[in-house]
Amino acid sequence: MAVLAEVEKKRSDGVALPQPRAAVLAMPEYHPPLAGREALRLDFNENTFAPSPRVLAKLQKLTAEGLTVYPEREPLERIVAAHFGLQREQVLLTNGVDEAIHLLCCAFLDEGDEALICTPTFFMYDVSVGMMTSRLKRVQTDDSLEFPFERFLAAITPKTKLIMVASPNNPTGATVSREHLLAIAAAAPQAVLMVDEAYFHFHGETTLGDVGSVPNLIVARTFSKAYGLASLRIGMLAGDARLISYVRKVSSPYNVNGVALAVLPEALAEGARCADVAERGELRADGHWPAAQGAGRGDARARRAAARPVERSGVRGLCAHHPRRGGACDARDRGAAGVARRDAVDAE
Ligand SMILES: Cc1ncc(COP(=O)(O)O)c(C=O)c1O
After folding, report:
1. Which of 217-221, 270-274, 281-285, 339-343 is the least confident region?
2. CA 308 → CA 50, 115, 280, 285, distances in Å?
3. Most exposed of 61, 119, 224, 306 (fewest Cβ within 10 Å)?
4. What is the average per-residue pLDDT within 3-21?
5. What is the mean pLDDT of residues 225-248?
6. Three-state DSSP state, 58
7. CA–CA distance, 303 with 280 (Å, rounded to integer)
8. Residues 67 and 120 placed together within one structural domain of the fold
9. Pocket of ligand 1, candidates 46, 48, 97: which has the most ligand atoms within 8 Å of its Cβ, to mutate?
10. Domain edge (last residue) among 251, 267, 283
């Protein structure tokens, strides 16, 4: 009570209550849509079918003791790095790409620095940049919804410190060629170029092979979409070891939970099939997940799921919620990301 009285006295004397930084007051807020989660929401671009049966099998083997220990990220970063032909120092596992974006902004943006994105794009870029600097430049996409490459290049200034490009983009589905991405990196050597490859599996072109040789390039990948692990929150950044060391410095040592880390090798092992399914469009051709290796042997539940017809959408499926696109979906971009009815899993 004495404390309360003291606070009240200070307030009546004109002492202000705690306030956040000016940037936090000014930054936009992400309001996740709360309605309609019992049905399929294409605007989340989730894989609404299931992760790989290997992941599900591993989940069932987790022990109570395993949950009591802090999750070590490093051994898994070695596995991920080896999987992608990188050094461990070039890889940082994150709590989804959402956190990766947040960490990049913390590591590379000061007030007064400029960040560059196209618009429309993934809203979390606005949120995380706004937390650090008021100088977010948005290059407007025209009616074609293609990436505005020339105007984007022209918007780079010496103050540009972080550039974020999603390819394929959410919500337009537009892609940016590797050649154009490398040209952007070359035009802004003072800036980090983050290429967000959340939807890589539904397009196939990547700049991951340029990590290390392009000193200002960082590639983000998520395990939420094609791998179907959105609920576990795991993603990764791959880039020049020096740049990644700064992002590692601002990240919590235990940012990725142990369940996600435990199933990651299984998800990676299934990765080739996952990419294959998306690239070959097998889902499109017959409306089923292919009768998978994992879905066979003894796992009746997975077998039933594999045999269940699904409806498909994909990156451009988002456009159903994009007024300018009028709901048009481009078959080119359809793939496993927007796959299926939620009840295919829930009903099991
Ligand atoms: C382009 C893009 N990047 C990143 C994310 C977030 O991915 P994560 O689930 O790994 O945080 C999304 C999610 O919709 C996205 O569309």
Report:
1. 339-343
2. 12, 45, 19, 14
3. 61
4. 88
5. 95
6. helix
7. 21
8. yes
9. 97
10. 267
Q: Which residues have a Cβ under 8 Å from the Cβ of 260 and sit 6 or more positions away?
A: 223, 229, 232, 233, 234
Tokens 């791998």 — which residue?
227
Q: Which atom of ligand 1 is nearest to the CA of 100?
A: 11
- For the segment 75-84, the average pLDDT, to the nearest whole number, is 97
Q: Are residues 207 and 290 in the same domain?
A: no
Task: Assess whether 60 and 141 both reside in one domain.
Answer: yes
- How far does the centroid of ligand 1 lie from the alpha carbon of residue 230, in Å? 9
For residues 151 and 250, membership in a common domain is answered with: yes
Predicted model pTM: 0.80
Domain membership of residue 21 (yes or no) is no
Is the pLDDT reported for residue 288 higher than 90? Answer: no
Residue 185 falls within a domain, yes or no? yes
Nearest to residue 51, comparing CAs of 268, 256, 202?
268
Nearest-atom number in ligand 1 for the CA of 166 is 1
Q: Which of 215, 244, 267 is the last residue of a domain?
A: 267
Contact between 240 and 217 under an 8 Å Cβ cutoff? The reply is yes
Which atom of ligand 1 has the smallest separation from the CA of 168? 1
In a domain, 1, yes or no: no
**pLDDT greater at residue 91 or residue 304:** 91
Q: How far is the CA of 198 from the centre of ligand 1 (A)?
A: 6
Ligand 1 pocket: which of 43, 95, 104, 170 to mutate (most atoms within 8 A of CB): 170
Domain count along the chain: 2
In this structure, the residues whose C-beta lies within 6 A of any atom of ligand 1 are 45, 96-98, 122, 166, 170, 196, 198, 222, 224, 230, 235
* Smallest CA separation from ligand 1 atom 3, residue: 198
Distance 186 CA to ligand 1 centre (A): 25
Whether 229 and 326 share a structural domain: no
Ligand 1 nearest-atom number relative to CA 122: 1
Domain assignment of residue 157, given as a range: 56-267
Q: Please give the angle made by the CA atoms of 297, 300 and 305, to the nearest 5 degrees.
A: 110
Confidence of residue 76 (pLDDT cuts 50, 70, 90): very high
Q: How far out from the chain centre does Cα 347 lie?
A: 27
The verdict on 154 and 255 lying in the same domain is yes
The answer to whether position 22 is within a domain reads: no
Tell me: do 94 and 240 sit in the same domain.
yes
Q: How remote is the CA of residue 1 from the centroid of ligand 1, in Å?
A: 47
Which of 42, 200, 225 has most ligand 1 atoms within 8 Å of CB, for mutation?
225
CATH at 260: 3.40.640.10
